[in-house]
Every structure is written in C-alpha cells, then in structure tokens.
Specification:
It is an enzyme of class 5 (isomerase). The protein is α/β, with parallel strands linked by helices. Helices cover 50% and strands 13% of the residues. The chain contains 18 helices and ten strands. It is globular. Bound molecules: 5-phosphoarabinonic acid. 5-phosphoarabinonic acid (PA5) binds at residues 78-81, 140-142, 145, 148, 202-204, 287, 415.
Length: 445
C-alpha cells in the first residue's frame, strides 16, 4: 500500500493530463536544476537525505531530557515555525494528549504559544503553568518575528524568576538561523542549546528540520520513521513522467481546474485530528501561490462536522471551487455501534457496524453528492496516519507546491506580501525607523 491519487471525479479526461506533460516537465527541470525563481530556497528537496545526522541525535537527546524533567513544554513560534509540529502532534498523538495522565502519555503537556498577540491567551497560559516544571522551545528563523518575540520575552523573564538564570538556561532551547538574527545573538549570549534552520529552507517547508523535529520528538513520536517517509517521498516524487508521478498529477490538475475558473480549493478530511494538517497546508499553498494577482485560494473543512455548516454552500453555492479529500484508509481506532433492544433512536440498522464504516459511507455519499453538484473532487488516499505516512504526505504537498507554483508562473518560495501589515503595525506602534509611515497612517485614522 502507498499514498495514491484519484482524479476520476475531477471532470478531467486523461488527454488533459497528457497535455500537461510538457509544462510539468519544465517545472520539474526548473526545480531540480535550480534554475527557477526562488532557487536559493530549495534546500527542502534533498533535506530528508542531507540532514545533519549529528544534530538529529542532539534533537533526540534534548527531547529525552525534556520528557524526563518537564510537565509542560511550550513551543513558541508562528507560521512555518509552528504549524508543521502542531499538525504532526495533532495527527499522530492521542486526540486528548494533554489530558492523558502522565503515565499514559509518557511525556509533557505540549502547548503552542507566540502564534497570536493575545494577552488573554498568554495570561491564561501563565495561570495554568503555575507550579509546573516548564521547558521552552523558541523557534524563529529570522529571530525577529513580533508574535513569538513578545511571548518569549515574557516567558523568559518568568523562567528566570522561577528557576534562576542558570537553570532557566538549561530549560530553553532555541531553533533559529546558524549565525544571523536577534534570537541567534540572544541564544549565544545566554548559552541556550540551539538547533539550526538552514538558510535555504523557508519556514513553510521546514517541518523536517529541527523546527518540527524537536517538538515532535518531545511528543514521543518516531522522527526516524517520519524522515523515512519523507525520504521515500523524495525518491518517488522525482519521477519526471506525470503518468507515473501522482504528486505531479495533483500539481497539474489543480492548475487545470484553476484555469477553468475553479479558484478555490477546499481540503477535506473526515478525522478531526487532521485539522492542523489543513492549517499547515493552507499556509503552504496560500503563501507560496497567492501573489502577482493570482493563485488558488486554499480553504479547508472538517467533515462531517462542517457538512452541517458549510455543506449547503459546497453543494449548491457558487461553482468556483473544487475539493481535495484526504482519505485515511485505515482509521487508527474504531468503535462498534451496539444493538439496543428498544431502538428508540431507530439506529438498529447500524448495529454491529463500526463508526469508521459509517464515516466512510459519509465520505462516499458526500463525494457523489458534491460531484453531482458540479464540484470536481480529487482524492488523496493515505493507507493510515502514522509517522511514516505523515512524512510522505508532507513531502507530497511540498513537492506538488513547488511544481504547481512554477506551473502558475510565480515564485513559490518568497512571501513579499506578508511585510505590508507588519510595516503598518510597526509604524503605528512607533518602532524607530518608521516615522514617515507613521505620519502618513495617522492622517488616515
Ligand atoms: O513560511 C514562512 O516563511 C513564514 O510563515 C514564517 O515561517 C513565519 O513568518 C515565522 O517566521 P520566523 O521563523 O522567522 O519567526
């Protein structure tokens, strides 16, 4: 069994895939020969084979220490320095991981911080960590991102107050650039253990670097197996021939659909634990392709939950969307629907069936309904959600994103648009260097 891709419900004909062969090949060459836009940010392609094995061992050691001496592990980061680890932990750990007893989860609670600017969130967090043993992983490639920097300033002071400078330093781990940025300087000065985000790997492509690996290892997950999945994905998805490469088929088909006016892609799952894979995916595609006035808008829904909210729109609303379903073939757990003699709820027709049986029927029923409602449906079949397939799936989407971005004709590896709000915010906050813009904005208020 393997990850497979089914486009039989896409309304596309095989010859249309054939027609995409040349353009996909050109994108493949650009990516692999490093001749396209953003060519300095392609370190993720070979990272699953090139990664620093010595650092990987350090990650495992640090994770073990944290698992031994920590009640609550705080992961401070935003965007690409946040969503990959959260996606993995939510997809692969117990659904109620933080609520399990220490024996059962066999590791610390894991809480993500510094991904918003809410004082309420941080204040509430500080209330619940009181009296617990804490370790922190501050993650920032640039080392200057406002959200994690503010949270870390406050948490660092809290740690030093609680443990004293010496012990606090042993409980703070920094993942950042090897030589540049405020966090690198601060870490060197304070003597934190550090892990490196390579120069040529952008945030949203950094799951397999220490950005993802340390928090994921702290959760007790098998990072070797995850890298193995990515490594096999790298091998399989470098096949040039679109007919033999399901990753390239996905990249090509989403562009064909986009050119037909399907400007929204809705990623669908039937397992709540996949919610953050969708969040990670939204960032990957939104930030990589939404530029130069074009790009598919990436959206996501959790089914069957959202069939009771967004279902109506998907079935009958504006026909400018297509769906991509993540189908986990074998659910991690299942539960039988029992017989009830009185049958007051009329559910006895399901007696002896399992919840996953029902869930799969909901999937097929929805698929046919939405296809009948003229929504092209693409299906990514994943044999099961474990570390190996998580790694492979992440690599599948990363590789497809690089190819898809080049087909679209954008630089998928930059994000100039995210600077605009920051410049305004800094000006409004009175950050030195932004005086002129501050004056301009004041007039607009
Ligand atoms: O993908 C990206 O480049 C961004 O989402 C960044 O990861 C995010 O802005 C965080 O940046 P940094 O790691 O520099 O704090």
């Amino acid at each position: 069994s393997n990850i497979s891709f089914d486009y039989s419900n896409s309304f596309l004909e095989k010859h249309e895939i054939e027609n995409a062969r040349e353009i996909v090949l050109a994108a493949h060459k650009k990516l692999h020969e490093k001749t396209g836009a953003g060519k300095d940010f392609l370190g993720w392609i070979d990272y699953p084979v090139n990664y620093d094995k010595y650092e990987f061992e350090r990650i495992k050691k640090a994770a073990q220490k944290i698992r031994n001496d920590t009640d609550v592990f705080l992961v401070v980061g935003i965007g690409g320095s946040y969503l990959g680890a959260r996606a993995a932990i939510e997809a692969l750990c117990h659904s109620f991981y933080n609520m399990l007893s220490k024996d059962r989860k066999n590791g610390p609670d894991i809480i993500f911080v510094g991904n918003n600017i809410s004082g309420t969130y941080l204040k509430h967090l500080m209330e619940v960590i009181e009296g617990k043993d804490i370790s922190i992983n501050i993650i920032s490639k640039s080392g200057t991102t406002t959200e994690p920097a503010i949270a870390f300033r406050i948490l660092k002071a809290y740690m030093e107050d609680k443990y004293g400078k010496n012990e606090a330093r042993k409980r703070i781990y920094a993942t950042t650039d090897k030589s540049k940025g405020a966090l690198r300087e601060l870490s060197n000065k304070e003597g934190y253990e550090t892990f490196i985000i390579p120069d040529d790997v952008g945030g949203r492509f950094s799951v397999f670097t220490p950005v993802g690996m340390l928090p994921i290892a702290v959760a007790g997950l098998d990072i070797e197996s995850m890298i193995e999945g990515a490594k096999d994905g790298r091998q399989e998805y470098m096949e040039e021939d679109i007919h033999k490469n399901c990753c390239y088929q996905y990249a090509a088909i989403r562009n064909i659909l986009y050119n037909r006016g399907k400007s929204i892609e809705v990623l669908v799952n039937y397992e709540p634990s996949l919610h953050y894979i969708s969040e990670w995916w939204k960032q990957l595609y939104g930030e990589s392709e939404g530029k130069d006035g074009k790009g598919i808008f990436p959206a996501a829904v959790d089914f069957s939950t959202d069939l009771h909210s967004m279902g109506q729109y998907l079935q009958d609303g504006t026909r400018h969307l297509f769906e991509t379903v993540l189908n986990i073939e074998r659910a991690k757990e299942d539960i039988e629907i029992i017989e009830d003699k009185a049958n007051l709820d009329d559910l006895n027709y399901l007696s002896g069936r399992t919840m996953d049986y029902v869930n799969k029927k909901a999937f097929i029923g929805t698929l046919f309904a939405h296809v009948d409602g003229s929504v092209p449906n693409l299906i990514i079949n994943i044999p099961k959600m474990d570390e190996y397939y998580f790694g492979k799936l992440i690599y599948f989407f990363e590789k497809a994103c690089g190819i898809s971005g080049y087909i679209l004709g954008v630089n998928p590896f930059n994000q100039p648009g995210v600077e605009s709000y920051k410049r305004n915010m800094f000006a409004l906050l009175g950050k030195p260097g932004y005086e002129e813009l501050q004056e301009e904005l004041k007039k607009r208020i």
